[in-house]
């Protein structure tokens, strides 16, 4: 089979490799689609540690080709999505039910071979069924959606809540949809790109604003802003120091800020403890997808969350190394690799 290996930091190679043999509890999955995530670029650049040589790709779905001898509940021919994050089940955090904080967390596509390949091995504990009728490209959105679901769970949005989402990438556009689904009546998206703002309005944002130039806080939550006084919940989905600093100022008194964006290790930001305390702002980071992958699969299977408009283009294997190693084009949301 063909697989795209990260051989070292900054070095990809597409090559033939033996098809992996499923262990007793593994599924061998023929990859139908695998999304390119910003994390793949960080791994390529050495900004997050990977374990080369390894095949990247953690947003994959496909069809089961073969199953290990002890697998039950899955059979060849079924379509599945994989939760790439494998917790040990034995450390103190796993025992507390905090599997995303596992001391020995391993991820498919980071520490083990992933989805930029014809086939990927998926432990049965990490597999979730998708309907045969589903567009194969849509399965690749279960993983990012599962991460957004964790953030939305932590936010405790109530019917009638107001929400501000910073950043109109795939994460921000999924959060917009989940916030509406959770009952928010006002969902304001801040992103610079005009095309992403139009798209967000079609996906349920009640208003969108261009944050470039001017005073974002004043124009969004000032007396004449979209949500005067601030939102019940603010989601930071841009992953920049300035947007993390901005987020608490967009929340109302007693409001909640959910940090989904990942900033490079070592980056620090300026926050005002006085302001956080006196306005009792809850600042909650949201990491990965603890126990949310099944619900993400259900939402994708049911078509409740729109993902087709988030696919900017599909590419083949031989174009993947180039696409991963370069920053996304302007207005581009998600590029999906189809083996
Ligand atoms: P992305 O495609 O890079 O989206 C970020 C968006 O932020 C960009 O599309 C950009 O759009 C917008 N942006 C840039 N500057 C801005 C500003 N000043 N104000 C408002 N928006 C601004 O990334 P993504 O895939 O959606 O992921 C978003 C973040 O979540 C990343 O940091 C990623 O690493 C992280 N993430 C976290 C988890 C988790 O479990 N916590 C899981 C997956 C991803 P414009 O050009 O339109 O401004
Ligand atoms: Zn653990």
């Amino acid at each position: 089979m063909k697989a795209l290996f990260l051989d070292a930091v900054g070095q990809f190679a597409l090559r033939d490799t033996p098809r992996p043999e499923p262990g007793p509890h593994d599924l061998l999955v023929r990859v139908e689609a695998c999304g390119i995530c910003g994390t793949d670029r960080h791994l390529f650049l050495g900004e997050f540690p990977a374990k080369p040589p390894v095949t990247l790709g953690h947003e994959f779905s496909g069809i089961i080709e073969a199953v290990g001898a002890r697998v039950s509940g899955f059979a060849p021919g079924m379509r599945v999505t994989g939760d790439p994050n494998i917790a040990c089940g034995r450390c103190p955090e796993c025992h507390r039910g905090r599997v995303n904080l596992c001391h020995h967390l391993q991820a498919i596509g980071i520490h083990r071979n992933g989805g930029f390949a014809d086939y990927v091995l998926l432990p049965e504990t990490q597999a979730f069924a998708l309907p045969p009728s589903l567009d194969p490209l849509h399965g690749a959105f279960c993983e990012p959606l599962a991460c957004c679901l964790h953030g939305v769970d932590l936010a405790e949005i109530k019917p009638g809540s107001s929400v501000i989402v910073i950043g109109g990438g795939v994460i921000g556009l999924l959060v917009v949809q989940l916030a509406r689904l959770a009952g928010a009546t006002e969902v304001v998206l801040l992103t610079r790109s005009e095309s992403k703002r139009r798209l967000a309005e079609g996906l349920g944002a009640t208003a969108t604003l261009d944050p470039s130039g001017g005073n974002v806080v004043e124009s969004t939550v000032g007396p004449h802003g979209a949500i005067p006084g601030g939102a019940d919940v603010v989601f930071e989905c841009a992953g920049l120091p300035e947007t993390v600093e901005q987020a608490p100022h967009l929340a109302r008194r007693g409001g909640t800020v959910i940090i989904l964006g990942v900033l490079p290790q070592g980056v620090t930001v300026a926050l005002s403890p006085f302001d956080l305390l006196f306005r009792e702002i809850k600042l909650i980071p949201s990491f990965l997808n603890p126990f949310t992958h099944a619900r993400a699969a259900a939402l994708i299977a049911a078509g409740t969350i729109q993902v087709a408009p988030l696919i900017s283009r599909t590419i083949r294997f031989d174009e993947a190394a180039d696409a991963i190693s370069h920053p996304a084009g302007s207005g581009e949301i998600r590029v999906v690799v189809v083996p």
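The longest strand covers residues 26-35. Residues 172 and 286 are 13 Å apart (CA to CA).
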